[in-house]
Amino acid sequence: MEPVVSIKNLNKTYRGGHQALKNINLDIYPGEIIALLGPNGAGKTTLISTICGIAQPTSGSVTVGGKDIIKDYRDTRSLIGLVPQELTTDSFETPWVTVNFSRGLFGKAPDHAYIEKVLRDVSLWEKRNNKIMTLSGGMKRRLLIAKALSHEPRVLFLDEPTAGVDVELRREMWQLVHRLRENGVTIILTTHYIEEAEEMADRIGVIANGEIILVEDKAALMQKLGKKQLVLDLKQPLSAIPESLASQALELRLDGYQLVYTFDTQADRTGITSLLDALRRENIEFSDLSTTQSSLEQIFVQLLEEA
Question: Domain spanning 5-222: which superfamily?
């Protein structure tokens, strides 16, 4: 499958000498959702701005739909929808007028049925004739998505799409993103909400200091880098881990009532069987056991520490 967005050896250095992007290479495929995770200042917004033609690259190339973003600017820009972080709307207009106007900016013929569909998709149809100044912050953010979709783009960039919105609205936005993907839109989002990436993305990219340090399928990433833990609830507390078990990756918790064993899911042997045998020899009994796996947040922190 040919990528819909292809980034090759992309660099961006600002006039003051700060290198915001360092040799970025990334292919994004039709119909996928990819999340770019990174701390503030990592280069996420600069990367999106460069792909969308807002910032000029210092070197390297970007193609969208097989066309170069510089040589074929108008063609590539028409394929892209961008939802910025800032709430930039004309307060005195209505959603109906502003979304239709956005469509016209891209040279698209009026299509009231399509605009109605977009406004319904973002739950703004009932507010279509209200002044934008009367809308809530969450409604204004959904309006930005409607404007970005007005010209029927193939690729949608969401730069921190749920910044400053409450948990309920955030989940509504996640559902909207999934519906857009079902309609064939490729979605690239930047976020610092780990749960957002975990909920929505097919692939995770981690960016730090202007470099992409990892791009991986979400499930594979969590399986490869995530540690699994076996948690044993003990019938009687331990004051210390017995010497015979000192070589095991064990930790005492809850005042000695809980024993935690950490193991590698990718190893040929987990060591659980030998651990349970050793506990039996030490007459250590447990009332319950369970397993937990590292969250994406823990993996993200680990990757940044190693970068």
Answer: P-loop containing nucleotide triphosphate hydrolases (3.40.50.300)
